[in-house]
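## tool: complex_structure
## caller: assistant
## args:
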Amino acid sequence: MIRLKLPDYKCQTEKVKERFSRLKRRSVTMEVRNLTKTFQGIDGPVTALKNINLKVHKREFVCVIGPSGCGKSTLIRTLAGLEEASSGEILLDDKVVTKPGPERGMVYQEYTLFPWLTVKKNIMFGLLESGATKSIAESEARQWTSLVGLEKFENHFPNQLSGGMKQRVAIARALATQPKILLMDEPFGALDAQTRAKMQVYLMEIWKNIDITILFITHDLNEAVYLADRVVVLKANPGEIQEVIEVPVPQPRNPSQFITPEFLATKHHIETLIHPIGEVKEVDNLNLVRMVNVESDIGDVF
Amino acid sequence: MPFLAVRKPLSKEKRSLVAILSFAIPLMIWSAVSYLPFVWHPLIKVTDAGSVDYFKANMLVPRETFEFEAEKMVSAGLEQPSGLPSNPLYLPAPHEVGKALYTAFATEPRRQSEKWLHESLWSSIQVIFWGFILSSMLGIPIGILAGTFDFFSKLFEPFIEFFRYLPAPAFGALAVAILGIYQAPKIAIIFIGTFFQQVLVVANTARKLDPALLEAGQTLGANNRSLVLRVVIPGILPDLYRDTRILLGWAWTYLIVAELIGTSSGITWFITQQARYKNFDNVYAAIIIIGVLGLFIDFLLAYFGRRFFPWKTT
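## result:
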């Protein structure tokens, strides 16, 4: 078997290095300080998140990845203010935030569009809440619908749209209130592979053109490496930051980079962090014996 | 597609056929019992008394008595009585009830103070309407609050859980003592019978709203007031509408009890009065009218429901 010889994921070209040093000089949009989250389980308290420290810079794209049960969703829900932190602080532009608010837009995997509102009115929801008049909200919503390419569907109800379209509306709805940061909780997890790839390209386009910082939860390695400036790798029990990786793949990204050495190296490294080599859990093994008749025509599938 | 397929809708033609059957079967049983002389018919309607001294024409006597008397006359060499098998008075045949459906409306009341059937019906509809409207005006908002905020749930629901086990008719005497003998106590009984169930049903419906929608609302900047007015209420509206349809059915079932309180009135008065005159065909006619009216209102509400909530069906 031929093994690919991959470079070290820490190896960055001058251009990438220079970009990261510039990125780190930017102001910090969201800062997480010593965030810990415990909740009462059946047998005693469970620590879902432990001592999370993270700085997300302005217009940075950060992906959070980790094995299932590592508290990715708890993290983003706490950042959004939907769950209370047990200890620690969340700062948005140096101000402590505890409750949900429109300055942190949220996009969920299940779209969560209001089914009784049309596309346009869904996008208008947050604008009206922030005190915009109906005519202003309407014209802004119209701009957003055309920005996500759905102007033909502005009077459709969500259940008349495909999954990818729904998620575009959800993104537009979250962006319409001009949040400082967009929190995305596995937003493309329910989409099929092609739609997903398309949505990733859309999201990159939006990120490039709009003044927005993005924190993106995923369990898909390709997605994390493809989208992120930095990838935060969590580990489970308790949910802690294992490593923060600066992705050495140059920006702007395009799908042809999926097979570049630095892409594969980063992906491989994250893979080993999430699923350490040699780690075999007993529950993962099947307990099979041969159950094919000896006289069967096809005795062996190979 | 066979008629019996687990959780598969029937084809359009089959569905209509089965729906017609659902009414046709009870009607066929009723007709069989009424028109086939060998099915049931426990009595004999005397057509000719013969030599039996206490028999009279059109008298209804039990079959055994009739046969016993007939045998007695045969052995005594006297004239036999003759008669036709017949059902008791309280089971009129379909055609009699059908005729009564018309005559009940067309017949003038016996006394001047008495009401025509349509007047009685109108009075009943008013009692239902006011009882149900008052209940909904209080019950729906309280239910929505209880389903949205735990505070209101804990404040209202324990007491309501207790109160809903108290049978509404038990408050009849009290209602009359407080509200007099006319329409008010009847409306109160409908209210008591509906309100407590309504709060719990609406609260449950409000609780079933996808919490992710409330979270989405919050991350878009909605405060509590907005969450209730712009997320909870529009979000549960179709279910609320369905609940209201079902609860209106409940209110109808309380109607008869409510109308017996104080001065008997409405369709109940009509029914009891006709039963007293032994016009059982009119009694059945009135019962059928209540059913048809209820079904009609339900159909109407279902039809509007589909038009109100286009996002629910398409």
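## assistant note: Chain B is about 70% helix and 5% strand. The beta strands of chain B are 43-48, 60-62, 82-86. Handing back to user.
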